[in-house]
Amino acid sequence: MLKKIFNRVKSQKGMSGVLVALLLVIVGVGLVAGVQTYMTGASSNIQTSADTAITAATTAASN
Fold this sequence. Notes:
By secondary structure, the protein is mostly helical. Helices cover 90% and strands 0% of the residues. The protein contains 2 helices and no strands.
């Protein structure tokens, strides 16, 4: 199956167009993965800060 795909890609006249498209796909996937990782880390930091603030507020209110 992969052999057929490679033969078809190689037979294309505009090989540079195919390579550019593949490069854009790879860059796009990497960008999405990077943003997802950043957002997960930022969300975790926000949740930790909120938990700390809530604990401090409830401790101060109970005293």
